[in-house]
Amino acid sequence: MQSIGGLHMQYYVVCPRKLWLYSKQIGFETEHDRVIEGTLLHEKSYPRKDKELVIGDAVVDVIDDEYIQETKLSSKMQKADEWQLLYYLYLLKQRGIEKKGKIAYTKEKKVVEVVLTEDNEKELKKKIAGIYRVIESDSAPKFKKLPYCKNCAYFDFCFALEGKDDAT
Ligand code: SF4
């Protein structure tokens, strides 16, 4: 069974079709570049953090005993960012580490607090099951135009197939 990382959660919330394409490593290089960009942003914005924590595919900063923090460029995808961080908090909880989270948005210079509650843990488990349903499927979820599409790494792929009979 494929292991799920924070990007799986983020893509599932943004667009299940993006998640499927990512899981099949279609256009992986572009995604990989994006991951590298994210890493550079992390390093530029908050260089030389004394304490960092590796959680699956992510490195998050440990702010203090209470909080871990993720750094993002802008809050355009705030909902997806929050679920991604909730997923990291959930993974930590499974290892016996209970923390709260913060997302620092560098463009807007704002910080959002994220707390793993009983309710969002239940929702998180549903999302994890949903992620497995998507990535274990042989075909991609149907194309559906989203406001996010124009900024998506799979834009050319999806829009080239739009309207064609063989579009997945
Ligand atoms: S271009 Fe749009 S439909 Fe295609 S994967 Fe990206 S967000 Fe999803």
Automatic annotation (TrEMBL):
<keyword id="KW-0051">Antiviral defense</keyword>
<dbReference type="InterPro" id="IPR013343">
    <property type="entry name" value="CRISPR-assoc_prot_Cas4"/>
</dbReference>
<keyword id="KW-0408">Iron</keyword>
<keyword id="KW-0269">Exonuclease</keyword>
<keyword id="KW-0378">Hydrolase</keyword>
<dbReference type="InterPro" id="IPR022765">
    <property type="entry name" value="Dna2/Cas4_DUF83"/>
</dbReference>
<comment type="function">
    <text>CRISPR (clustered regularly interspaced short palindromic repeat) is an adaptive immune system that provides protection against mobile genetic elements (viruses, transposable elements and conjugative plasmids). CRISPR clusters contain sequences complementary to antecedent mobile elements and target invading nucleic acids. CRISPR clusters are transcribed and processed into CRISPR RNA (crRNA).</text>
</comment>
<dbReference type="InterPro" id="IPR011604">
    <property type="entry name" value="PDDEXK-like_dom_sf"/>
</dbReference>
<dbReference type="GO" id="GO:0016787">
    <property type="term" value="F:hydrolase activity"/>
</dbReference>
<keyword id="KW-0464">Manganese</keyword>
<keyword id="KW-0540">Nuclease</keyword>
<feature type="domain" description="DUF83">
    <location>
        <begin position="6"/>
        <end position="159"/>
    </location>
</feature>
<keyword id="KW-0479">Metal-binding</keyword>
<comment type="similarity">
    <text>Belongs to the CRISPR-associated exonuclease Cas4 family.</text>
</comment>
<protein>
    <recommendedName>
        <fullName>CRISPR-associated exonuclease Cas4</fullName>
        <ecNumber>3.1.12.1</ecNumber>
    </recommendedName>
</protein>
<keyword id="KW-0411">Iron-sulfur</keyword>
<dbReference type="Pfam" id="PF01930">
    <property type="entry name" value="Cas_Cas4"/>
</dbReference>
